[in-house]
Amino acid sequence: MQDIRKALFVGSRSDGKLIQRPMSPHLQVYRFRLSMFLSILNRITGVIATGGATLGVLWLSAAAKGPKSFDTARKVTGNPLGKLVLAGWLTSVVYHTVGGIRHLMWDSGYRFEKEQINKDGPVAVGVSAGVSVLLVAALLITCGRSGGRSKVGKAS
Amino acid sequence: MVEFSLPRNSVVGKGKTYPAPAGAKNVKTFRVYRWSPDDDNNPVVDSYEIDLDHIGPMVLDAIIHIKNDVDPTLTFRRSCREGICGSCAMNIDGENTLACLKPIKDVKGDVRINPLPHMPIVKDLVSNLDAAYAQLRSIEPWMKSDSAPPPDSERRQSIEERAKLDGMWECILCFCCTTSCPSYWWNGDRYLGPSVLLAAYRWIIDSRDEHTGDRLDELEDTFKLYACRTIMNCTQACPKGLNPAKAIGQIKELQLERKG
Amino acid sequence: MDSSVSHIKVMRSQLGRARGLGAGGSGTEHWWAERVSAATLLPLSAWFVIQIFRLKGASHDTVVKWGGKPVNATMLTALIITTFHHAGVGLQVIVDDYVHGKLHKPTRILVKAATALIGLLGVFSVIKLVISGVSRKS
């Protein structure tokens, strides 16, 4: 079915010979607009969120499997790289949620005017950044605090 | 797989430079996309250095000047020069707009002029719009009513009913919006695009039209309507200030409403 | 540079091509499913973020006890099912946009299968946690 548009790319020279027409540049020339960038960012963060959710399920299945698998899972989440991945995932989920709320507002019929769209974009970025920083900071702090304690306390 | 990069025969190279005439003081460079079927080459960008003191304020004035006095082979569509015919739609400084309504002053630095994005190029800035016109025709943009009109007057419509058409009847079919939509770039053979969907909605909410259900049936398709990802490039691009994204949102709401 | 074309392959009229195979008759359900799952995920994710803070660095016993509680198990299961349903629809939209031709159907099936399986894994893990919780109490 893609051939449908390909057919329009056939043109002819002045002497009648059939030739292939070029395609005009698109991504290569289109101006960067925050709204366009935020839209594709919503998609990218959605994919990252799915990846993280998969890892989350693996963590849960490790917990369900038994203490030994859970320990391995704990080593992964406790490790600095693991914490970085968790922070990145959390930031993606926060942005995707904020962007998602924006989409839900549009789907309900609100904030469609050009001025509103251009105002809401920076607000979405600000809110996402703010909430992400708060959450990641809180996570790192509480993780630091309870990380030492848990090995001793609630075993029996 | 969809191609994010241009096909090999479409990659744009560097073209000629046409320097400003001697003694020109207010010079601005126009970098214009050029390609001719007789070229046997890839498209190029030619640079024209123009003295702004001797031409009108709009980008269209500049390219008409180029065609008249500098390079007669430059090819583009134009007609009314006042933003109502839609002929001179092109990508200026990265955004789709009408050349006759784009002040040269608004562009900082060189003025980059390209044809409407992701379209087959006939020559220079002229793109082939057959697909878009056919898509418009496919949504049957005319009144469809089964009841007979009143014998002595027009089909009546209240002020409120007529107000619903505002923001849609003004569309000049320039296709700035449609060719600014990334979803149309990747799926334009099946996705109708913002301009056509705006036209479809204009007829869907016209109180005098009696085939609303059929019109909505025709749009109930994963691609024709639902390839819209609310990216919002269309509303940003419209040179007449219309809001295709909002109209598309309202079509989706109607589809949902009738599904109960 | 050879840009010559041997002959014209497609002569169908523009209108015929634009109409294509006609409207498929579906689309609203998927669109609605994406929105409903998104809206449902708002409270569920908020609950989950709170739980992450409660469980950060917790021992295995704590996690099992937490997962065994009926309220937590229910919320977790709801979260997992809604998340992977939403993810499935979202990924399908991505496949529709970017993958065309022969690869399209296999990729769609792969995406649906992957999200369904991972979701199932999550749900069964929760069930196992509930059972472990029960067996521990007795």
Kindly describe this structure:
Chain C: Pathway: Carbohydrate metabolism; tricarboxylic acid cycle. Chain C: InterPro entries: SQR/QFR_C/D (IPR034804), Succ_DH_anchor (IPR014312), SuccDH_FuR_B_TM-su (IPR000701). The complex is a heterotrimer of chains A (156), B (260) and C (138). By secondary structure, chain A is mostly helical. Chain A is 72% helix and 4% strand. Chain A has a two-stranded antiparallel sheet with strand order 1-2. The longest helix of chain A is centred in the C-terminal third of the chain and has 36 residues. The C terminus of chain A is likely disordered. Chain B has a 6-stranded mixed β-sheet with strand order 1-3-2-6-4-5, covered by helices on one side. In chain B, strands 7-8 form a two-stranded antiparallel sheet. Chain B starts with 12 loop residues before the first strand and ends with a helix. Chain C is mainly alpha-helical and 138 residues long. Chain C has a single domain, classed as 3 helical TM bundles of succinate and fumarate reductases (Up-down Bundle). Helix content of chain C is 77%, strand content 0%. The chains are: A mainly alpha (156), B alpha/beta (260), C mainly alpha (138). The interface between A and C is large, with 53 and 51 residues.
Concise overview:
The complex is a heterotrimer of chains A (156), B (260) and C (138). Chain A is mainly alpha-helical. Chain A has a domain at 33-50 and 79-146: 3 helical TM bundles of succinate and fumarate reductases, CATH 1.20.1300.10.
Question: Could you outline the blueprint of secondary structure elements for this entry?
Answer:
The complex is a heterotrimer of chains A (156), B (260) and C (138).
Chain A: H1 3-6, E1 10-12, E2 18-20, H2 34-65, H3 67-78, H4 80-107, H5 114-149
Antiparallel strand pairs in A: 1-2
Chain B: E1 13-18, E2 27-34, E3 44-51, H1 59-70, E4 89-92, E5 95-98, E6 111-114, E7 121-123, E8 126-127, H2 130-138, H3 159-163, H4 182-187, H5 194-204, H6 212-219, H7 233-237, H8 244-259
Parallel strand pairs in B: 1-3, 2-6
Antiparallel strand pairs in B: 2-3, 4-5, 4-6, 7-8
Helix pairs in contact in B: 5-8
Chain C: H1 14-19, H2 28-55, H3 60-68, H4 70-98, H5 104-137
